[in-house]
Every structure is written in C-alpha cells, then in structure tokens.
Amino acid sequence: MAPYTNIPLSPAELSYLHTSLSQQPPIRPDGRSPTQFRPLIAETDILPSANGSARICFADGTEAVVGVKAEVEKSKTSQALSNNGEVAGQGVLGLGTGSGRDVDDEDMDGEGEERAGKGRDEWLEVAIEIPGMRDDDALPVFLSAMLMEALLADGGLKDRLWINSRFHWRLYIDVCQPYYYTISNSTILLLSQPLSYPLPLLSLTTHLALLATRLPALVSEKDEDPLFNDDWEASTYLYAHTSFQQKPPVTLLVMSVGDTILFDPSKEELAVADSALAISIAQSSTGELRMVALRTVDPPSRLTAAGVPNVLNTTTGATGAQSLSAAEVLAIREKDQGQSVWRPPRGGVRRALVARMIKMVVEKGGVGEEVMAGLGGVEM
Amino acid sequence: MPLDTSTYALAHLRLDGRRWNELRHLHAQISTQASSDGSSYLEQGNTKILCTVSGPQEQRRNAPGGRQQQAGAGSDTEAQIVVEMNLAAFSSTDRKKRARSDKRVQEMQFTIAEAFRGTLFTNLYPHSTITITLHVLSQDGSLLTACLNAATLALVDAGIPMSDYVSAVTVASAPSSDQSLDEVDPLLDLNGLEEQELPFMTVGTTAAGTGEGVEGEAKIMVLVMETKVQMGRLEAMLSVGVDGCRRVRGLLDDVVRTQGRRVMENKIS
C-alpha cells in the first residue's frame, strides 16, 4: 500500500508533469520561464503596534503577515562577552557565531567596529503560527528554525541589536499565516515530512518586515541605562536606507527536474521534483550577493506512489503477471527505471547541479539580485 | 491621566478628539482571499481583523474535547459553527504569545458562535461544519465587536444564507464627577485606553427598522458586559449601543453592495 500523501495526482499526471518539466526549454504548467516568479502583492507598515511589519500575498491565495517587535533586555554579563561574543559551544543553533568576520557596515560609522561580534544568537526569536497546527508540530518548528538560521548566518542582524554592554534589543519576529492550503484536517501522516512550500513566502515577508523595522533613537550614552527619544519620527531603521547598506537575508526555494532548474516552484511542480534546495542569500553593502546557508529539502515526490508498468498490469490483460515472484516483479520495475510509468525519484543530487543552482542564484544579474531589487522597490 | 473626569466635562471631547457618539474610522473589504470560501478584512480604528470562512463542509474530524463546547453541536439537524480566534503575538503593545487554552479567547469564540447560530440558516446544512477563523493582527479596543463585524462580512462573502447581518459596537459610561444620572453621556466605540478605564459593554444586534424595507425591531444577538455600572445608566447605554449598531450595519451593507456592484460590472462588461 502506498504511503499516505496529500498530493492528489495520479502516476500518469506525475509522469506527464515530469516529462514536461524535463524538456529544454521546460514547459511549466502555468507557462512561466524557469526563472520567473509568480506575481505577488507586498505591503509594509500595516501594523501600528509593531516596530516593523509586512504582508505578502501570492497569486494562489497564500499570504503571510510578519510583525517585528523589539524589547530592551538586560544582557547576561559573563566572561564570554569579552571574547567577541563567542560562548562555549557555538551559538544557539550550533552554527558557530561567525560574526564580525564579514561585517563591513559603512552606515554604522564608528560604531561598526564597536558592535561587530557582540551580537548573540538568543537575542532573536522567530515564531510561526499556522492555523490548524500546534506550536510544537513539526512544520512550524522546522520553518522557524530554517528562517532563524538564515537570519543569524551572516551575523549582521544580531550585531545591530547591541545597545551597550549591559543592554540589548530582543527582537521577536512573529509570522501569522492566515491561509495555508495544503494542510488537510484529517491528517493521518505516516511520515512527519515537513512540506516546505511556505518557506520562500515567509522568508520574503520577513525580509520586508526587517527592512521596515524601526528602533527608537538612543539618547543615553555609553553604558548608562538606555534612554530613548519619545518621538517616533526620530527613530532609526534597523537596516538603514542609505545607498550602501547591508540587507537582511532571503531564502529561495529552487528545484531540479533532470537537468532543468526551476525557481519559485508551485505545488504541482514540487510533486515531481528530483531535488529541492533552500538557498539563503545575503547582500553585503557593496551589493554583492553571498550564499549564507544551504539546506536540502526532501521533496514530496518521494512520497508519491509508483505507477504499474503495463507488463505487470493485470487489468490491461498482461498475462503471467500473477505468476511472477516478488523478485521478478522487482526486477521488471527496476529495468523499467521509470521510463514507461512514473517512479518516485531516488538517490541524491549531483554536485555539479547544486553548483549550477547556487550560481544561478548568486551571480551578477541572476535571480537573487532580481528578488532583492524587487523587494527593495517596495515603498516603506 | 486619560480619563480624568474634568477634561471630558470641559470640551466633551475624548482623547482622540471624538465626541460621545462618533464611531472610529471603519474600513472593511470583502472577498480579500480568493482561495477561501469567504473572507474579509476589517479595521475599526487600530483594531484590525482578518477573517476567513470555510464551509459548509463535511464534518471530517471528531471534535477534540475543547470543541464540544462550541455552539450548534446538534449535527443531525443543523450545521455546526466552529469559531477559531488567533491572536497574533504582535497584536498588542507588548509582545505576548497566547496559549491555545486562553479562557478569555475561548469565551469570545463561544459568544461569536452563539451569535451566528441565531442568524444563519443552519438547518439547511445538516451534518456539516461552518468554520470561522479570525486572525487578530492588531488590537486597540473593541475586539469582540470587530470580530463579529468581520465574521458577518466573511459569512456574506461565503454565501451562507442568513436572516440578517450581525453588527456590533461597544458602549461605555462616561466618567462624571458627581453621581447624578443626568448629563452623563454614553460613549460609543471605545479604543484600548478607554476600555481599560471605563465600564463598558459590547452590543451586537440584527437590523432595526431602518425604513428601507426592513421591518421589525432590532434583535439583540450579543450583549456582553464584564464590568460594573450603575443601573440607572444602563438604559441610555443600551439605546446608544443599538443605534450605533444600526450605523455600523449601514457601513457593512455599503461594503457588501460595493463588492456586488464590482462583481456585476465584471460580468457584464
């Protein structure tokens, strides 16, 4: 019996999709080019009580609202702070703190050197709410870990949260996703496979919300108790809007089918993916894009059921199929190799293909730049 | 302090410059999400609610313990109405993650479900469930009010037959230095600060006789009061509240008609 999956496509449909997408140039169900994104609506500053907020709506109806709130918190003073913020162990996610190395923020003037390396991973908290799921279900936890990993990876964000040696900002990024179409209420999932479809949506919305986040202007000096200017007009952006500025990271979902690489895959396209990667990129102040995190995602195509080859199909009159042993049936299927009917993809992805995917994202004039430019064009 | 009695008595203006019977800016949109059966977005002042409705649909799950309390549990003869309210962590001034079993939220969910059980024609859909999901993006007073109004619009968008809109409003009793019953204005449509300081109630009604072909008197579907007020002031508050509901109903109706016009124009052109 095939494992349960909430992909309502038959083996014939899967095979058809796979073949269309493997063509050169690929034929996508909605007619997009391989690097074309679906149209979306983006707006910022929709929440009056949050430091920063954004909302992105995809054409298929999924939307996400992200609110960023900041609170002043007393820093834990320990000897560790004197070692450039590195604590025994390696930050919250075991990634290494890695801060201070690549941060060259021209917008922070003399403070840049003071702040570099002082940020701590636990100053950032990302929480995702998906209707119908509890907060400790696999999907929300997985998604928030992925988002947090990307945000912390380049070290720039947590360094901006440093106020002085005794206090820091604690940033709460809360994601509210009003509608999530692939969750069915009667789940009997045999595998707790997280479906990472909302990841690019959440990442883009978080990026916008962070760009729109403002923190009150600091009035106190050095190490005294922080005092802020009451005037909200005097507040400063977390990511300053000068022409040379670092931007928060963005995570893109990239999939491959055979030798074809596709961006912004839809649900149907992901159902036939050979591989899927979540690539997080950050833009330094010089405008250069850098990959800060890469995560392989198990595509849902592995959960699909294989089709039955004609040779074995008793309904089409294949004789002798019933008399074959299990080993012989297996041999026939293996020989077929998914050419006559659909077979779920097996194995990993070639390194050369991964390299191509990364290059397409990071290169000058590539997809990453297009996405960053698009988001940068949203009015604050 | 905000509700210092003397300031109000001087100019009869509230903190945000409104008079006693002025509603906050109400902005609503219907059919905001094409992918759900019914949806709406409503802003009353700074209280912003996003509502989606799905159903009537097959009752697929055995309701877990908490849901048994929901109204309309007679599934053989009528549809069950399930209300889910999600308060976003960034919705109030302080960031606060709500536990699922917050009693206050559960009570509001129940109140909303009961209110609609009285207006929706649930007997047309036995063995099915109508799910109303409310996402509170920002709250600044009159939360239950805004939820009821948003849910009404979303239910209209979903095309679920109903006898009338449920429109709601909050009313408070203005502070006064003496305890006399005269010259005390009931305040309409409270914001967050006022709700914290004054005794108030939430009133939700169906249509009053507006003279536009709607006959009969207004029926009160929701009346919630958790604070104490002098008995003598109650009647004035209630009548101001019912009148306020009528005005809100007019605004909601405008939104629905505008959308209807837009749909017709798209079909005809």
From TrEMBL, chain B:
Residues 22-161 form the Exoribonuclease phosphorolytic domain. One of its GO terms (molecular function) is RNA binding. It is found in: Cytoplasm; Nucleus, Nucleolus. The keyword Cytoplasm applies. Residues 55-77 are annotated as: Disordered. Keywords: Cytoplasm, Exosome. Residues 62-74 have a biased composition (Low complexity). One of its GO terms (biological process) is rRNA catabolic process. The keyword Transferase does not apply. GO terms for cellular component: cytoplasmic exosome (RNase complex); nuclear exosome (RNase complex); nucleolus. Component of the RNA exosome complex. Specifically part of the catalytically inactive RNA exosome core complex (Exo-9) which may associate with the catalytic subunits RRP6 and DIS3 in cytoplasmic- and nuclear-specific RNA exosome complex forms. Exo-9 is formed by a hexameric base ring of RNase PH domain-containing subunits and a cap ring consisting of CSL4, RRP4 and RRP40. Belongs to the RNase PH family. This is Ribosomal RNA-processing protein 41. It comes from Meristemomyces frigidus.
